[in-house]
Specification:
- This protein is α+β, with helices and mostly antiparallel strands and about 160 residues long.
- It has one domain (about 25-145): Hotdog Thioesterase (Thiol Ester Dehydrase, Chain A, Roll).
- About 20% of the residues lie in helices and about 30% in strands.
- It contains three helices and six strands, in the order αβααβββββ.
- It has helices spanning about 1-10, 35-45, 55-70; strands at about 25-30, 85-90, 100-105, 110-115, 115-125, 135-145.
- Strands 1, 2, 3, 4, 5 and 6 form a six-stranded antiparallel sheet that branches.
- A hairpin with an 8-residue loop joins β5 and β6 (about 135-145).
- The radius of gyration is 17 Å and the shape is elongated.
Length: about 160
Amino acid sequence: MLASYARALLPRRPARPGVVPERELVVPAAPQDPARIARYAELCGFPRDPATLPATYPHLLAFPHALALLTRRDFPFPVLGLVHLANRIEQSRPIGAGAGLGLRVALTAARPHHRGSAFDVVAEATTDACGPPVWRSVSTYLHRDRTAAPGARRRQDDPHP
């Protein structure tokens, strides 16, 4: 993860301005450390339940992989300066604290936003290599640009000003 932080600090030219490459990282299932889960739950104020993961814990596991995608040379926007607009988390069922979690982290294509370009980092967690995701998050980011795309006026129902 330190390498990703270092790459985030380095100036670079975008490969293709505004075009977010369709990339994903898949991480095989791995068991979780119960002591780390307990520390996280306590720090974040979750009820003590040693049998299940806090709903936001998989996001903690996925973030280093998201950062790896955002700091690749072919990613068009500098990481420093991105505006985090939203997080949405869906969990289909409680995840056992002893379950091995596999992760898939992907970038979506950039779309026009009235203040620049927006894109999503989608993360999914599975407890079974062949099964459907039991957890999913969508983190929306904005790259601010004074020359916002034509037709990208702010919609009245847009939750992200």
